[in-house]
Amino acid sequence: LQSNFVTRVLTGQAHFQLRNHKETVRPLREGLAGEGRELAQIQVPLQRLKGIDQWQSWATQLSRIPEVRVLSPSVTGAALASRGSATRSVSVVGVQPEVYFQIIPMPEKIVQGQALINSESILIGTELASDLGLGVGDKLRLSSGTGRVQTLTVSGIFDLGNKAANSRNTFVALRTAQTMFDLVGGAS
Question: Residue 87 forms beta bridges with which residues?
């Protein structure tokens, strides 16, 4: 049980993730309540998907650390996956499979099809496949918040050992995600 748990946890996600910081709230004016002055209304800024500034130079620096074995850029964002009239909210992760699979052994997690990721394909979880009635070779339409729409072919169905992850996570090519989320040449 312990070995199974450790294997599932350590092969389900990267051990470290470098992310852009979230935007913070700053008041535009000062004021005290009760003194006849209006307090500034502070609202949390909308969290736009932003790329990591000069991610390639970060990758170069991080890869020089002896303990870093593999480094993989990714673009992650939310989208609506639809097939016919059925729609689900999903997390789209754009990766370079040749390096990402060294971190997360997706080929070992495939239960149908193959771990093929290219500009026209997508990997989906078992729960999402069941919810939308999808099989290998079927088409899936992704719509991002930027208004971009991609229709991709399911090349593989995976089981990450977690129902929530299997119903929400999808994997596409890095360039596909960069286009979908307007981060051309970027990484999140």
Answer: 82
Assign 104 to helix, strand or coil.
coil
Q: Which residue, 183, 1, 185, is CA-closest to 92?
A: 183
User: Beta-carbon neighbour count of residue 13 at 10 Å?
Assistant: 12
Report d(CA 184, CA 53) in Å as an integer.
12
pTM over 0.70: yes
End-to-end CA distance of the chain: 35
Sequence-distant (6+) residues with CB within 8 A of 159 are 109, 111, 125, 126, 166
* CA distance readout (Å), 51 to 45, 56, 101: 17, 11, 22
Contact partners, residue 168, CB within 8 Å, separation at least 6:
89, 90, 91, 125, 128
Does 8 score more than 80 pLDDT?
no
Residue type for position 125: G
DSSP reduced 3-state for 43: coil
DSSP three-state, residue 50:
coil
pLDDT 10s digits, 32-47? 555 555 555 566 555 5
